[in-house]
Amino acid sequence: METIQTDVAIVGAGGAGLRAAIALAEADPGLSITLLSKVYPMRSHTCAAEGGAAGVIKPDDSLDQHFSDTVGGGDWLCDQDAVELFINEAPRELTRLEHWGCPWSRETDGSVAVRPFGGMKIKRTWFAADKSGFHILHTLFQTSLKYPAIKRLDEVFTTDLIVVDGKVQGCCAIEMRTGQMIQVQAKAVILCSGGGGRMFPFTTNGAIKTGDGMAMAYRAGVPLKDMEFVQYHPTGLPSTGILLTEGCRGEGGVLRNKDGYRYLQDYGMGPESPLGEPVLKTMELGPRDRLSQAFWHEQQKGNTIQTQWGDCVYLDLRHLGEAKINERLPFVRDLAKSYSGVDMVTDMVPIRPVVHYMMGGIHTDITAATPLPGLFAAGECACVSINGANRLGSNSLTELLVFGRRAAESAVAYIKDSGVSVDGAAANREATAVEARIRALFDRPEGDETTAGLRQEMFDTMEGGAGIYRDEASLTATTAKLAELRQRWQTLSVRDKSAVFNTDVMQVLELGAMLDLAETVASSALERKESRGSHQRLDHTERDDTRYLKHSMASYRGETAPPAIDYLDVTITKSQPGVRDYSGAKS
Amino acid sequence: MSRKPFVRPVPATTWYMRNGRYLRYMAREVSSLFIGLYMAGLAMGLMRLAQGPDAWNAYLTALSSPLALVFHVLAFAFATYHATTWFNATPKAMRIRWGDGYVPGPTVVRAHYALWGLVSLVILVLVGVI
Amino acid sequence: MSERTIELEILRYNPATDEAPWYQTYTVPCQEEWVVLDAINYVKDHLDSSLSYRWSCHMAVCGSCGMMINGEPMLSCKAFLRDFGRKIRVEPLSHFPIERDLVVVLDDFMEKLPRVKPYIVRDQEKPIEEGEYKQKPFELYEFKQYSMCINCMLCYAACPQYGLNSEFIGPAALALAHRYNKDSRDEGRDQREEITAAHDGIWECSFVGACSEVCPKAVDPAGAIQQMKLASTMDWYLERLGGVGARVKRSLSSRRTSK
Amino acid sequence: MAKSNKPIVWGLFAVGGTVAAFCVPALILAHGLLVPLGVFGENALSYERVSAVIGFLPVKIVVLGVVILTLWHAAHRIRVTMHDFGIRKDDMVAMLCYGAAGLLTATALLGVMAV
Prior knowledge:
CATH superfamily of the largest domain in chain C: Alpha-helical ferredoxin
Strand content of chain A: 15-25%
Family (chain C): Belongs to the succinate dehydrogenase/fumarate reductase iron-sulfur protein family.
Strand order of the largest sheet of chain C: 2-1-5-3-4
Distance between the termini of chain C: 59 Å
CATH topology of the largest domain in chain C: Fumarate Reductase Iron-sulfur Protein, Chain B, domain 2
CATH architecture of the largest domain in chain A: 3-Layer(bba) Sandwich
Organism (chain C): Roseospira visakhapatnamensis
Order of helices and strands of chain C: EEHEEEEEHHHHHHHHH
Shape of chain A: globular
Oligomer: heterotetramer
Catalytic activity (chain C): a menaquinone + succinate = a menaquinol + fumarate
Enzyme class (chain C): oxidoreductase
Radius of gyration of chain A: 23 Å
GO molecular function (chain C): 2 iron, 2 sulfur cluster binding; 3 iron, 4 sulfur cluster binding; 4 iron, 4 sulfur cluster binding; electron transfer activity; metal ion binding; succinate dehydrogenase (quinone) activity
Largest interface: A-C, 61 and 64 residues
CATH superfamily of the largest domain in chain A: FAD/NAD(P)-binding domain
CATH topology of the largest domain in chain A: FAD/NAD(P)-binding domain
Number of domains of chain A: 2
Strand content of chain C: 5-15%
């Protein structure tokens, strides 16, 4: 086994990981930085984000307004100290990205342009047409090439954290091209490994988003926070789950049911705004949870269109005209045309809610530190938590930057303050045990179970029992099914025994991670007997602040047991829980 | 080390047989042989002109030989092909600003074709008159 | 839901057991609206879990799944079955060593990319407190197209000059250099020219144009390279004009850079 | 790494390619085909007329411009084409191509100036 020694290891080279790496390189040029990623950085799923990144820069906007939009959007489950820090830092981070070359769309006077976004009372979403995440990722990746201190290990699949005496001292990984195990001994590890939307069948998430990092931290004893909050994006293409950005609605697109009726006005988001003149924070500019839930109700009423890929409603952009669509939404126009055969200039696009984002994740405090010394986390894999029960669109790209950098700074402070040194011999023992565990996968007798088969069963139970609406019965069935699937995973064998670029073993490990996480999602959802944000219970339809104004914390209890669910108070500084109002009735 | 990346060799002399795109490219490149030979002939002709009427007339006679005619038919075809590929590619290499964008490629190409027609007409008329 | 069956002929290569690559044919039941990647995923899930390939986003933006499909470099997530017949041949991208099956070795590009300094280079950094650089719509337009590259490597697989001489910096890296050269915030063109205008840079390009034809994002690397040749040629002559040339060159570049 | 010196010839190649595209097809058609085939009559391109026309300095300059630029365009592209055909002795090919272009340039110059 190859051993690499480094000061800080970062797992994941998407937006958060790259931002953290650059921050480390800038903090101290003498620091050795190892950036591990299971794909080349530019393949990271940040590239698929379309709409934009929120940050207050315009004179008509205020930090307070961004704060209250975010906290209300999160149904008061956000930690308000974290939100405040996030919002204060956002404009600086976005400006820094501008200095690094990000091709933000502009006003005619050359200043950065902003667009309206769901749940935001004021236009504050910076965007690069409809490829904001792509440009952010490539700007960060290309900028990272300036820093020789950043040593990248591309296509290296991290499997486990190395924990010695209650401190994280590195991680173990499989080098895909050789199949060899690597141990990266580090004084601190930052997880930036993304979400796990792939545990659901219909998702905007790429194949790589299997929550490996979350599962790794979970198995190492770090609680996963608020895992029941899974965001459905209201406008995905039905056949593939491809994302049509919220920018579509930001620019004035509307949702219609099978009768052409703008149904959102029936779900507390009216009155109907005039076509082409969207009113901020109402109707189609409501938050994602409400829009996806409204879809479900329309479906129950039989107002959706039946397609071969299930029920859909229409996204109507025809009134925007070709010129505006080409300027602001060229990518999604092409996507809809190619994958659904619909030109949004002339026709309405059938869409449906698809799993998009996990508000929950690795429990961190406001400094991006986890309870496990030496372990930090940022980005979708982490839960700091600024997104609460429902993330507002365009907050997550900014989150990558703000907390990616913060995790790096915290890691540096941790190394300096604690004077931590790596216990090489102990780390090596841990790594050897991990290697044995991975090798054992190859030795399992070949049975009937297949990765694809187990995965499909996971899809079915997650979609059926832990979707937009849940109840006691569905969640109980899902948790039971997931417990069974985790058992059966133990007998799943790796059929491909070869070393080089073995994606078979990778898929087995990814499925294992997803099953662990799926169980935390379902168990947390089962225990939360209320409806809040993206977590909606048919049997507990109201928000219950007396019992559940709390973060749920799922802790690992071994390969066969379900997680222990515990609760942690939400930090409230200046905004007491109130009514989420998207009717446009008051300011 | 379990790696053993397999390198597929690219045949140095016949690579362009792989697809039509490459063959079209080679046809464009080969046009230079014909254009070059034609111009070499023209340069020689100019020298013959300087040498007096007899030399010039011998040159004109040589031009009417079947071999010369066949060559010129081919050269004409390749030169025309060169011209079309050249004009079609011009907007890629040379962009002309127009307001907040560039003159659209097809417009640039069409302008080139128009000018080409004009220049060709002038040349034909001049040679015809002389 | 209409179904059809296709014959997927996939180039296989396992370095542990194979001396050379070979073709394996799979019969795949497909949905009409599938892309080639969906069919390959079907093989992986249901027929042969040992097949190795890269993919992620399934929406033509991550750049992972470039392959030769019936001899043409394409993103397999955007190669629709409806555009092909019953038999489809899938091979790894040309001009790259095969690591395994459809996975190629990308070290060469990853080593070249940093050499062209694909980031903003400035003599003096502007403090964050001073806010953003202003960039007029035309200034954005000038480089935007070249910033759309997803590094999918289709252009390298299409470029015969790269196939013949792998020292060539190649289309995507050069287009990215051009992207930063054309950015009004950048002052690094002279530094990049050390690489781009050297022997293995733009002058290895013979303007076949295949890179631009196969580019899934309409980046037009061929156009970028010709523009760089033109600019580099102007530089060469201006540099030899002495003081006058230097002045012209300076005024040309200072017009571009926002201070 | 040293910058390439290809810009010297590339400038000539690019300008020559444009000149060739505009002029050469019509030139070949007229002078290589229509005149020899007698389309323009027996006396087309007679020595007297041609030498009289080329006697004018502006005409000399235009004719030389077209011929010389086109020659260098062709020379440079032939060099690249040889490489594409698998001939890898680039230095020698370049010497031959540019040498020939130089010789022919001199020939055209001498010829035209002597008229």
